[in-house]
Write a structure and sequence with these properties.
The protein is of the alpha/beta class and about 290 residues long. Helix content is about 40%, strand content about 20%. Helix 3 packs across helix 4.
């Protein structure tokens, strides 16, 4: 059931949640979600009056339910994300580094969804303005309503997801942290912030949740350096150790996803001359540059 979040904007709870923004005689729908059953639910809740479908980024859990949705204008996506939305192979390769079998990384079925309208920033349509929120993916955007509600996609996460994941998934560590800090500085500019996977927050609560996300990210370099000071390690080894020591569930998927963030961080340390990479029997070994 739709829940009002203010000024006619409604939210269909889930992981991710889906935002409905009224416009003329229908709705713009943001991030339909990760279930084929949800397609029918969205269509029902909108009473068949969907103006357009807005996608924040190409991950399967955000686009699966977009396939089959009937709308007047079709699907909109940022130019950097559009190819990943249309190509399941590219979507998997960005994370895995090549072809990945179904179910190895993601719990959501990969589907190809056609993008009808590709945009560049700045971009506005109807009641919505795209807001750049890179880091989780390179072209991720959020959508801000005219009434000051920001659907912030996967730029930050709720408490429970942070606790279970241990290492938040971000393709570019520095860009993700910069985005978090920008959101923290501008949290009060918006009436409410809606993370895809977490509670609707505003005011002080929004700042506290963003502070928690920033804290988790800022602590990650220290953990990585600590492991590398013991012995040279692969990104996957570092990922597994951090997840295990954080009390998370160590699985093939969690290691692969965590290693994306870790590898991005290692790359930044490498650029700064703080870490070096060497070839070894265990693969690419990272160590501190003493």
């Amino acid at each position: 059931m739709l829940k009002g979040v203010g000024k006619g904007v409604k939210l269909l709870p889930g992981s991710p949640s889906t935002m409905f923004v009224p416009w003329e005689d229908g709705f713009y729908v943001v991030d339909p979600g990760s279930s084929e059953d949800r397609t029918e639910e969205i269509q029902t809740q909108a009473k068949g009056k969907i103006k357009g479908v807005m996608i924040t980024h190409f991950h399967s859990d955000h686009v699966l339910a977009a396939r089959g949705l009937k709308s007047e204008e079709g699907i909109y996506a940022h130019i950097v994300e559009a190819c990943g939305i249309e190509s399941v192979g590219l979507r998997r390769a960005v994370t895995f580094g090549g072809y990945a079998p179904e179910g190895l990384i993601y719990h959501v079925k990969g589907v190809s969804v056609q993008v009808d309208h590709v945009f560049r920033l700045p971009f506005k349509i109807g009641p919505l303005e795209a807001v750049p929120l890179p880091g989780h993916t390179y072209g991720q955007v959020g959508y801000a309503t005219e009434s000051g509600i920001l659907y912030a996609a996967d730029s930050f996460f709720g408490d429970r997801l942070l606790k279970s994941a241990i290492i938040p998934y971000h393709q570019d560590y520095k860009a993700a942290l910069d985005t978090l800090r920008w959101l923290r500085d501008h949290a009060r500019d918006y009436r409410k912030l809606i993370p895809s996977h977490g509670p609707v927050v505003e005011g002080r609560r929004a700042e506290e949740l963003l502070d928690l996300n920033i804290k988790v990210m800022e602590e990650l370099p220290g953990k990585v350096v600590d492991f590398l000071s013991r012995r040279p390690s692969t990104a996957e080894e570092i990922s597994a150790r951090i997840i295990k020591e954080g009390g998370g569930n160590v699985t093939v998927s969690s290691i692969i996803l965590g290693a994306v963030t870790v590898r991005s961080l290692l790359s930044r340390l490498y650029e700064d001359g703080k870490a070096i990479a060497e070839a070894g029997d265990r693969g690419v070994l990272w160590k501190m540059n003493e």
